[in-house]
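Weekly structure sync, notes
Attendees: PL, DS, HV (note-taker this week)

Item 1: Thiol-disulfide isomerase or thioredoxin
DS walked through the input record. Source organism listed as Salegentibacter echinorum. Sequence as pasted into the shared doc:
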Amino acid sequence: MKNRTRTIKQTGICLFMLFISIGHAQDINSSKTSLPETVFGEWQGNTGNGEYNGLLIHPDFIEFGYRPFLYQDIRKKANGIFVFEAMDRQENIQRYELEILAKDSIKLKRGDGNFRLFVKHKDPLGSKRVTMANVPNEIKKTWFTTDGENNLEFKLEPEQIVFRDKAYNIEEVVHFRPNETGEYRFIVKNGKDYRMFYFKNWDEHYLQVGFNGKAGDAYKAHKELPNVRIKNFAEYASSENGKKYLSAEKGASSVPEKVSKWIDNELAKVKAKPLKDFDSPQFFKRGTARIIGYLKGYDVSLGFTTGIIYLGNDITGEDFPVVVQIHPDGRFEADLSISAPLYTTQFVIENKVIPFYIESGQTLAITLDLFELLQMDIASLFENKFKNVDFKGPLATENQELIGFDFRGTDYNELRNKLKTLPPKAFKEEQLENLKQDLDALDAYKAHASVIKTEKSLDGKTQGKKTTILPKVYSVLKNKILLKNAYTLLNYVNDRKYEATRDTTNAVLKLPVPIDFYDFLKDMPLDAKSLLVSGEFGGFINQLEFAEPLNIHPKNNSTQPEKSILEYFEDEGIQISKDEKALYAERSWTSLEKAKQFYKENHENFIAFREKYKEELEVYSDKYLKPLKAAQAKPQQISMEKWRLRDSVLTQAMGLEKSLAYEIVKLRALKFDIERSKPEVARDYWKRLKKDISHPFLIEEGDRIVEELFPETGKTAYKLPPGKATDVFKGIVDPFKGKIVFVDFWSTWCGPCIAGIKRMKDTREKYKGNKDFVFIFITDHSSPIPQYKKFVEEQELEHVYRLSDDDYKYLRELFQFNGIPRYVAINKEGDVINDNFPMHNFEGELSGILKENK
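Item 1 (cont.): predicted structure, written out as tokens:
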């Protein structure tokens, strides 16, 4: 019987395979074929925006991501569509389907994507074919890596390119954007080994080469050059600072005597002693801290004169960015207003971050090699992979020990994939194992406390360096690890909710998150002040305050009219169409974005409805909406019910004690809870809320917020303080004196900025040429010129300003914002009416502003 069963199973399998084979044969020709010659050449995608969106279909390969994929298997379906696979040098395989529509048009599908239309061009759009003789001599030379190894990578010769000691014959050269400097695409081969090189952003000393899926690694013409591009090299090389740096022996780290004396003099002014530990009653202490230092290799010819520290108050959620002034001789300095010890990576120079630890009343000196900093990638910076950095001052030991620990890197693409593939329990278990490994690594770092190293510092002196870890340092590092882990777990819940709206068929995303998922919070020191020191606390507390279990609200029907529009029309016998009913049908939105999209798509239909039933809607408004608004306008208590519910969830469902962190959650919500209230209502709410807050400093912060929102003397416009930032801003707004100015800080990469400007287009048109007010728009160089010009033209923006990065940083500091969009209202005299203007309610705010500024 066993043999008979196996025979039946085998017969079934054979029949199944035969069925599949027959079906496959009906769909695809049994013999291999090749692509017709008509498809070989340059193809342009149908973006319609005039930008290059092309690809090359070569007789031997198809281009994708700066690399050739050689054809492996080409077949033709019965319907005429070609199906083929192609493989690159790393054996990555792409699957394609190609349909020929005409001699000059095809549809191409890659992988599981959609078919896209391509049109054939003789040459790539905006380019021309050239010979090697046309390639500039600045490119035709040897090029070395900028990874610190100084390896000879490329050598360009008249008929070949030598790449990593292997010679490739040049098959063709294409010059993109020949009316500009442009870039050059080389197709080269050695036998059947094809390469595609894109030489771009070139000058006499540096260039980028895109290949093997990379958009462009940097190369230099001489080994002696810094590993970071110097834009104005001739100017830099002739400057005093540049000569010193370029002529210095590799690894030399001398600090000019004048600079060294300045640093010593600044440090000598420090009178306060560092905190012994974080339990000190001086932990919360408002005061000034100073960051000073020296950038080895800096010169003004490099094109920047500032850095920035993105300072913030994590207790209240406020931003206080501070500009770091860089002097011509390489010295830098900044004064920080802080209220607690701080360990942050938010000190930024040329998009590179520098970690530091500081306390109120202290000064920290940092000396570093500018070009080492600029060469490092973001991941290395966040993982503390610094080599040549030196700290001086009372907190030098803390900083040296903090930077000595190597943090685990984060693969965000891997995390994103795990959202869709790992259930909550499995994700949490994996993350907690990572946490254990990180804590073990920290303990191992601490265990080597007896090791003493002797090395040269950046000032050239030999010194002994203890790796002893102070208790404060261990506390900061451990809390940083705990906070990063907690953020990852809390963010997992939020991100998978978003992904579930995009991938509605994913079974993993439909699994609920059990309440015990959050029990990792029980192992965190949520009542310890030391938790606030790490820069990761801001991200963590933001995730905690919006964590799903705590995101609970009491039922509140007072904001809803007694009858909806549809109910009123039905009761009154007013007949409306099916499509009109659909506009006001009750919906349960899965996201705010979907609701906004619906109203955007139906904007004209809503306008038409309101025009058609204008009289009926006025009656409805008088009867149901105006009484509701009047009731809401009366002073009333802000309910404490949401906190009663959240307190219960925290202690009963999540099993957590009330803590300093939870009190901060309440304080961070204060401004939002009261800013639309009457002063007496707001003060009453804060009086009741602060009974649940035990820490005196948090109560002081709450008192400050209430007073700033509702000053006893009433709100008045304020004058800008004298200084560089005000000078920059006055240079923009002074020409509009006599008018109210609404300022929009924006960028082309900022989605909410773009959406806000588009939404206001009709409003701007409505008030165009108004005698009382004007709109202006300010961005920086992070808005690329082509996208910037195109958007400005599309939106018909007037009074637009694209500032240098240095000037823009000063305006960030002036109006205290880290994120954009940010809106500011200026009165006719040039004083600030509102430095965080609610542009979403422009029409509602306008009449009051005009009335107060006649």
